[in-house]
Write a structure and sequence with these properties.
Layout: E1 102-111, E2 120-125, E3 132-136, H1 139-149, H2 159-169, E4 173-183, E5 186-195, E6 198-204, H3 206-213, E7 222-225, H4 226-230
Parallel strand pairs: 4-7
Antiparallel strand pairs: 1-2, 1-7, 2-3, 4-5, 5-6
Helix pairs in contact: 1-3
Length: 251
């Protein structure tokens, strides 16, 4: 085994001579900027267009009037001029009904009692002396009134329901129903209507008037003349529509 001595295994390092790197300054060239020539934008004046005035056509029918507050007890029919006022000689004044003549009633239902062949509409007086009047009607009309009274819907609208819908769409309101005359078992009535064209009184059968009144969205007053309850004769010349002769067909 050979002894390498105390200096064996040592590596002699030599210092590395470094050379400084010579840096060269970078010569920067100024960038020559060219001014941008702006062109003025020629603006055109905006021509303002004036819209023509829109004229909303007047859709109201000739003769339309503003609806006045309704009084179901007031008779809207004008009194005919007498001879002293320039009317026809000998012509009676058109009868008008004072408010105290009318009695408010409520429809109490439809009843059919044997051996009667037709049903009866029962009207109860809504104030003292609490009287009752029964009006005979046809079977079809009694059924229509019973359906309306009980709010029974049908698959298809019945005649009175259809007519009530037509009136509503034409802005015609049934303001009141009046039973005006009784002659035995025959009754006469009228409906007081209002619309944008004014107020009209139309003679009719009580059954039709009551069937329409029960189908109004707002409660419609039903009025009965006092002499209808008592069975007394109506004032001379009083007809179903307040004229000298009745023009409404019997029930």
């Amino acid at each position: 085994m050979t002894d390498l001595g105390p200096g064996a295994g040592r590596v002699e390092t030599q210092p590395v001579e470094t050379q400084p790197v010579e840096t060269q300054p970078v010569e920067t060239q100024p960038v020559e900027t060219q001014p941008v020539e702006t062109q003025p934008v020629e603006t055109q004046p905006v021509e303002t267009v004036v819209a023509p005035e829109v004229v909303v056509p007047d859709t109201s029918a000739p003769g339309d009037v503003e609806r006045a507050p309704f009084d179901p007890f007031a008779d809207p029919r004008p009194r005919a001029a007498s001879a002293d006022e320039g009317g026809a000689a000998g012509s009676p004044d058109a009868p008008t009904y004072p408010p105290e003549v009318w009695r408010i009633v409520a429809v109490a239902g439809v009843a059919m009692e044997l051996p009667n062949a037709n049903p009866e509409v029962i009207l109860h007086e809504a104030q003292d002396p609490w009287r009752e009047v029964r009006i005979p009607v046809g079977l079809a009309e009694g059924t229509a009134i019973a359906y309306a009274y009980r709010s029974i819907d049908t698959p298809r609208p019945l005649t009175h329901a259809l007519f009530a819908e037509i009136l509503e769409r034409h802005d015609v309101t049934i303001e009141a129903v009046r039973i005006t005359v009784r002659r035995g078992q025959v009754f006469f009535a009228e409906v007081d209507t209002s619309s944008p064209r004014g107020r009209k009184v139309v003679p009719c059968r009580p059954s039709d008037a009551i069937a329409l009144a029960l189908r109004q969205r707002m409660p419609t007053p039903v009025l009965v003349a006092d002499w209808v309850f008592t069975g007394a004769a109506a004032p001379p010349g009083v007809g179903a529509d307040g004229t000298v002769a009745p023009t409404a067909p019997p029930v």
